[in-house]
TrEMBL record:
Species of the source: Micromonospora tulbaghiae
Protein name: Membrane carboxypeptidase (Penicillin-binding protein)
Catalytic activity: Preferential cleavage: (Ac)2-L-Lys-D-Ala-|-D-Ala. Also transpeptidation of peptidyl-alanyl moieties that are N-acyl substituents of D-alanine; [GlcNAc-(1->4)-Mur2Ac(oyl-L-Ala-gamma-D-Glu-L-Lys-D-Ala-D-Ala)](n)-di-trans,octa-cis-undecaprenyl diphosphate + beta-D-GlcNAc-(1->4)-Mur2Ac(oyl-L-Ala-gamma-D-Glu-L-Lys-D-Ala-D-Ala)-di-trans,octa-cis-undecaprenyl diphosphate = [GlcNAc-(1->4)-Mur2Ac(oyl-L-Ala-gamma-D-Glu-L-Lys-D-Ala-D-Ala)](n+1)-di-trans,octa-cis-undecaprenyl diphosphate + di-trans,octa-cis-undecaprenyl diphosphate + H(+)
Top-level taxon of origin: Bacteria
Chain ranges of the Glycosyl transferase family domain: 60-245
Lineage of origin: Bacteria, Bacillati, Actinomycetota, Actinomycetes, Micromonosporales
GO terms for MF: carboxypeptidase activity
UniProt keywords, alphabetically: Carboxypeptidase, Glycosyltransferase, Hydrolase, Multifunctional enzyme, Protease, Transferase
Penicillin-binding protein transpeptidase domain ranges (all copies): 351-654
One matching Pfam family: Transpeptidase
Length: 723
C-alpha cells in the first residue's frame, strides 16, 4: 500500500506539471543528462567473481567473490531468458524511453485492486538504475540506502537517470546490463550465477521453463527462491511469467501450458569461494591456492595496498589461469600420502618448479587444506591451512641437510676451484670455529662423516657430492669462505624465515661453519627453485603461480611474465650439475662418479637427471631434491610441529622414490633433454693419488636402500683399468 500511495503521488505530480515544464524536463533528459549521471551508471563497475583454473585453462580450482556474480554477453544468454524477463518485468521495454507512465498508471490500478504491491511500475531501465546505485562500492552506505527509499523525489531522479541512459545506450545493452546485475536469490547476482546456482548450467542452455522460473524470482528473490524460500510461490510465479510471455507473443499458449506442466527439476550448485572450497576431492589444491592468494596480495597491479588487492581478487571478475599442473599435482599428492598418511603427525611436503620460468607446477603434502577441527591433541593433522610447502606465516621451514652442499660447490666453482679440487677427507675434521658442544675437538667444532668407511679418503667434488662427504664440504667451505656460501644460497632464492637464521646470515655469516650441512630452515618450494636455477644454467626466476590473468574487459594484466635474472655463469651451473649426476646413480661427463646416495633415481626417471639427498642431524628430517632441464622437485620429510620428533633414516628411500616419481610424471610426453657438459677450465685435472675405497658401508649406517651404496659397473670398470 505504501508503494501504491507512492505511485499515485508520482502520477499526480507528473500530471500536475505545466506542459512547458514537463517538456523542458524531457528535453533536458534527452540532451544533456547523460553527462551528469553518476560514474557507476556511465561506466558500471560491479563486483564479479574471479575464477582460478589449472594450467590447462579448463580445470576449475576455485572462485573468489564477495558477491556471486559473473558478467556474460547478451549472446551468451538464451533468447527465452531475455523474453521471459521482459514479459515479467517490462512488456513495453522496446518502445518506451526509459520511464513508462502508462506502466506506472497500470501498476497503480493493479495494486489498488489487489490491495497490495502486485506491480511496481518500474521499467527494466529504472530497475537497472536502482540496482547500480544501491550496490555502487564508491558510494557511502547512506547513499546506497537512499537509492531504494520510497519517495517521489527518489523516483523522479530514477526516471531522469533512466531517460538519460536510454538516449545513450541501445536497448540490448541496457537489457544485458540488467540481466548481469539483477538479484535472483540464494546469493546469485546476475543470470550467469543464477543459472549455475539453480540448474548447474550456463545461461545459454536455459530451457523455457527454467528461464520463466528465474524471471519470476526477481520480484521477491529470497521469498520465491525454490532453494531457500517458497517452492510453491516460485512455481506460481513461473506460471505468471509463462502466461505473460504468451500474451506478448514470445511463445504460444500451447508452449506455455507445456512448460507449466513440467516438474521443477533443480540442480543446486554451490559456487566455491576461496581456497578452502576447492573442487570436491581436491582439497590438496588449497595449498597452491593459498600460495597464489598470498602472491596476489604483493602485486601492485591489483591495488596500492594488500586490502585493495584482496578486494580486487574477490570483486574484480578476473580469469586466472594458474601454473598448477593437475597431473603433476596428483602424482605428488599420491606420493606424499604414500609415505605418510593424512593422520600422521609427520609430513612430506613436495614442490615442483619449472626451470627458466619459476612456474610452480605442484604443491602437495599429506594434509587436507581445511578449517575443519582436528582430533584432540593433533595440532595440524589431518587438517590445516598453514603453508607447509612454501613457508610463511608461522612456518619457517625445515632443515634440509646436505642439499645445502650445492651452494658450497657453486661458491667454490665460482671462485675458480675446479671440480677436480681434491682433499683427503678424514672421519672428523677440526675446524677454526669455536665450539663447546659435546664431541668438540679441543674447543673447536669438528664435524664427522656419517659413514667413514664409505666416505673417508681422497675426494673431489664429484664423489664428495655423490657420497655426501661432510668433512670434504666443510673443508671446501672454509677455503672459499662461509659468507660466500651463505650469499650463494640467498642468491638462488633461499629465504631465512627463522629469526635465528636471518640474524646469523646478517651478522655472522663468515663464521657459520655448519651452514654447508644444511642447518638453516628452508622449504621444499625454495629448495626446488634454487636447484631449478642450476638446471636453468644459472638463471634464477622468482616463483610464479600464474600463466595469465585476464580482466573482465578481456585485457591481460601484466603480472604473468616470468621475472628472471642471471645469477650464475652458465659454466659454473653446468659444472655443478656434472657433479650432481653422481648422487642419482648416473655418470658425469668425465666419468668421475663412483657412488651415490640416491642411485634408484636413475632407473625411475629413465633420462638425464641430477639431484642431492640431505639428512639433518640425527635424521630429524630427510630430504631429496632432483632436477632435469625441464623440472625441479623437492621433498622434505619432517614433523612440522615438533623438531624433536626424528623421522629417522629409513624414510629417506621413500622420499627419494616420491620425488623421483613426481619428476617422471612431469616429464611424461616431453622430449628427452640432456645436460651440457662444463668447460675443461672448471673440470681441472681429475688425477687421484689413490683409488677410492671399495669397502661397503658400516652396518650401523646402512639404510633400506642398500643399492644406493653399491658401486656402479662403470666405476668398477674404472677401478679395474687402474689396477
Amino acid at each position: 500500500m505504501l508503494l501504491a500511495g507512492l505511485l499515485a503521488g508520482l502520477v499526480l505530480a507528473v500530471a500536475a506539471l505545466p506542459g512547458g515544464l514537463l517538456g523542458g524536463f524531457a528535453a533536458r533528459a534527452a540532451l544533456g543528462a547523460y553527462a551528469d549521471l553518476p560514474d557507476a551508471l556511465r561506466t558500471p563497475v560491479q563486483p564479479q567473481r574471479s575464477y582460478l583454473y589449472a594450467n590447462d585453462g579448463k580445470t576449475l580450482i576455485t572462485t573468489f567473490y564477495d558477491v556471486n556474480r559473473t558478467d556474460v554477453s547478451l549472446d551468451e544468454i538464451a533468447p527465452v531468458m531475455r523474453q521471459a524477463i521482459i514479459a515479467a518485468e517490462d512488456r513495453r521495454f522496446y518502445s518506451h524511453g526509459g520511464a513508462d507512465l502508462r506502466g506506472i498508471a497500470r501498476a497503480l490500478v493493479a495494486n489498488v485492486k489487489g490491495g497490495g504491491t502486485e506491480q511496481g511500475g518500474s521499467t527494466l531501465t529504472m530497475q537497472y538504475v536502482r540496482n547500480v546505485l544501491k550496490t555502487d562500492p564508491n558510494r557511502t552506505p547512506e547513499e546506497r540506502q537512499a537509492a531504494t527509499e520510497q519517495t517521489v523525489g527518489r523516483k523522479l531522479q530514477e526516471i531522469r537517470y533512466a531517460n538519460a541512459l536510454e538516449q545513450s545506450l541501445s536497448k540490448d545493452e541496457i537489457l544485458n546490463r540488467y540481466l548481469n546485475i539483477a538479484y535472483f536469490g540464494s546469493g546469485a547476482y546476475g543470470v550467469a550465477a543464477a543459472s549455475q546456482r539453480y540448474f548447474g548450467k550456463a545461461p545459454a542452455g536455459l530451457t523455457l521453463g527454467e528461464a520463466a522460473l528465474l524471471a519470476g524470482l526477481v520480484q521477491s528473490p529470497d521469498a520465491y527462491s525454490p532453494i531457500d524460500g517458497d517452492k510453491d510461490q516460485a512455481l506460481t510465479r513461473r506460471g505468471y511469467v509463462l502466461d505473460a510471455m504468451a500474451e506478448t507473443g514470445a511463445i504460444t499458449p500451447q508452449q506455455a501450458a507445456a512448460a507449466k506442466a513440467e516438474a521443477l527439476t533443480l540442480r543446486p550448485t554451490a559456487q566455491p569461494n576461496g581456497c578452502t572450497a576447492t573442487a570436491q576431492g581436491h582439497d590438496d589444491w588449497g595449498f597452491f591456492c593459498d600460495y597464489l592468494r598470498r602472491w596476489w596480495l604483493t602485486q601492485p597491479a591489483f591495488g596500492s595496498t594488500p586490502e585493495e588487492r584482496e578486494q580486487a581478487l574477490r570483486r574484480g571478475g578476473y580469469r586466472v589461469v594458474t601454473t598448477l599442473d593437475a597431473k603433476i599435482q596428483q602424482t605428488a599428492q599420491e606420493q606424499a600420502t604414500k609415505v605418510y598418511g593424512y593422520g600422521n603427525k609427520r609430513a612430506l611436503p613436495i614442490a615442483a618448479v619449472e626451470p627458466g620460468t619459476g612456474r610452480v607446477l605442484a604443491m602437495a603434502v599429506n594434509r587436507h587444506y581445511s578449517l575443519d577441527d582436528n582430533p584432540a591433541g593433533q595440532a595440524n593433522h589431518p587438517n590445516t591451512v598453514n603453508p607447509l610447502i612454501s613457508g610463511g606465516a608461522s612456518v619457517d621451514g625445515y632443515q634440509a641437510g646436505s642439499t645445502f652442499k650445492m651452494f658450497t660447490m657453486l661458491a667454490a666453482l665460482e671462485a675458480g676451484k675446479p671440480l677436480a679440487t681434491g682433499f683427503d677427507a678424514p672421519s672428523r675434521l677440526p675446524t677454526r670455529y669455536a665450539s663447546d658442544d659435546e664431541g668438540n675437538c679441543d674447543g673447536t667444532w669438528c664435524p664427522a662423516n656419517a659413514n667413514p668407511q664409505w666416505m673417508d679418503g681422497y675426494r673431489m667434488m664429484w664423489d664428495g657430492f655423490g657420497r655426501s662427504v661432510n668433512t670434504y664440504f666443510v673443508w671446501l667451505a672454509e677455503q672459499v669462505g662461509e659468507d660466500k656460501v651463505v650469499e650463494m644460497a640467498q642468491r638462488l632464492g633461499i629465504t631465512f624465515r627463522a629469526d635465528s637464521d636471518a640474524a646469523f646470515a646478517r651478522d655472522n655469516a663468515a663464521n657459520w661453519g655448519a651452514f654447508t650441512l644444511g642447518v638453516a630452515a628452508t622449504t621444499p618450494l625454495d629448495l626446488a627453485n634454487a636447484y631449478a636455477t642450476v638446471a636453468a644454467e644459472g638463471t634464477y626466476c622468482k616463483p610464479l603461480p600464474v600463466v595469465s590473468v585476464t580482466a573482465p574487459d578481456g585485457d591481460a594484466v601484466d603480472v604473468a611474465q616470468p621475472s628472471c635474472e642471471r645469477v650464475l655463469e652458465p659454466d659454473v651451473a653446468r659444472a655443478a650439475t656434472d657433479a650432481a649426476r653422481c648422487p642419482v646413480g648416473q655418470q658425469s661427463a668425465f666419468g668421475q662418479c663412483n657412488g651415490g646416495t640416491a642411485t634408484a633415481v636413475d632407473s625411475i626417471v629413465g633420462r638425464p637427471v641430477a639431484g642431492k639427498t640431505g639428512s639433518s642431524e640425527r635424521n630429524a628430517t630427510e630430504t631429496f631434491v632432483g632436477y632435469t632441464p625441464q623440472v625441479a622437485v623437492a621433498g622434505i620429510a619432517a614433523n612440522p610441529d615438533d623438531v624433536n620428533d626424528l623421522v629417522g633414516s629409513a624414510v629417506q628411500a621413500k622420499v627419494i622414490d616420491a620425488v623421483a616419481r613426481t619428476i617422471k610424471t612431469a616429464l611424461t610426453g616431453k622430449p628427452v633433454a640432456g645436460f651440457t657438459a662444463p668447460s675443461r677450465a672448471l673440470v681441472g685435472d681429475p688425477q687421484r693419488p689413490q683409488p677410492p675405497r671399495r669397502t661397503e658401508p658400516d652396518r650401523r649406517e646402512q639404510r633400506e636402500d642398500r643399492e644406493d651404496r653399491e658401486l656402479p659397473s662403470d666405476v668398477l670398470r674404472w677401478l679395474r683399468e687402474r689396477g
